Amino acid sequence: MLKQRMLTAVALIALLVWVLTSQDRQLWSLFLLAVAALAADEWSQLQRGMRLPRGAYPVVTVVLLALLVDWPLLRACQPWLLALACGFWVLVVPLWLRQRWVMRQRVASALVGWLVILPCALALQLLRDQGEVVLFATMAVIWVSDIAAYFSGRRFGRHRLAPAISPGKTWEGVAGALLAVLLFGVLLCTPGPWHVALQPLQLAAGMAWFPALALLAVLGIEGDLFESWIKRCAGAKDSGWVLPGHGGVLDRIDALTAALPMAALLLQAARWQESWIQGGP
């Protein structure tokens, strides 16, 4: 199983790098639409109360995403959707996990699914528009957090984080993830191939650079817990089967669904601040 997981992970990273470095913008757009469609299909299968024909929810999701990215009227709503998603993850999801709510209404299931999937896909597009290095570095923060949480939890884990939702996660794993992310943040500040692309963001963030990275790590853990709870409610071990050894697409992007909208919103805030300063007296 470990060998299968490693091979799938290598293949996924290779695919991501190829799509990211391609100069064909349409290829990246098709990649995002495919990810959104697969994630939406898995979400609809986990939400038994939706009772929709197979394929209907993914199709509507893809149409909404395409309009959100390319239709001028909806493009103006992008910051508001990101802010709504960030409010959902920061304010609603902690209470949701604490109270262990279960969705049974079709409309609620559909809306929450779009709130999970669409802002994440939109953030991938907006971060990509800032350059491959910006997007890859942002995703790497979540990957570093995830890997550090796993190994530090296995080595030092004693106190469970959410035993009723995901028994394997511990507070020691959270501490390891935060420490690793902060060290990774130091690495990103050092001279390297990434320096030119990231330096303007680091200067704009200032003292908020490390708190922002820690926030993304915490949100990533929260996204992981939320998807674990959704699967537990559905009685499913994995969200799907499309990725051998890893389950489904939602299993791979669960942390990103919570962290990337915040990253995109913080990036836009930094750009607005930079523009305001340059345009000021």
Word description of this protein:
The chain is an all-alpha fold and 281 residues long. The protein has one domain (2-276). The protein contains 11 helices and 2 strands, in the order αααααααββαααα. It has a two-stranded antiparallel sheet with strand order 1-2. Strand 1 and strand 2 (166-170) form a beta hairpin. Helix 2 packs antiparallel against helix 3 (56-70). The protein is globular. The model has no long low-confidence stretch (mean pLDDT 87).
Question: What structural keywords apply?
Answer:
single chain; 281 residues; mainly alpha; two-stranded antiparallel ribbon; 2 strands; 3% strand; globular
Concise summary:
The chain is mainly alpha-helical and 281 residues long. It is built from eleven helices and two strands; from the N terminus they run H-H-H-H-H-H-H-E-E-H-H-H-H. The chain has one domain (2-276).
The secondary structure category is mainly alpha
* Helix residue percentage: over 70%
Report, as a whole number of angstroms, the end-to-end distance: 61 Å
Residues in β-strands, percent: under 5%
Summarize model confidence as the mean pLDDT: 87
Provide a count of the helices.
Answer: 11
Spans where pLDDT lies below 50 across 5 or more residues: none
Main beta sheet strand tally, sense and closure = 2 strands, antiparallel
Helix/strand order, N-terminal first: HHHHHHHEEHHHH
Using the CA coordinates, give the radius of gyration.
19 Å
Q: What number of structural domains do the residues give? A: 1
The total beta strand count reads 2
* Spatial order of strands in the largest sheet: 1-2
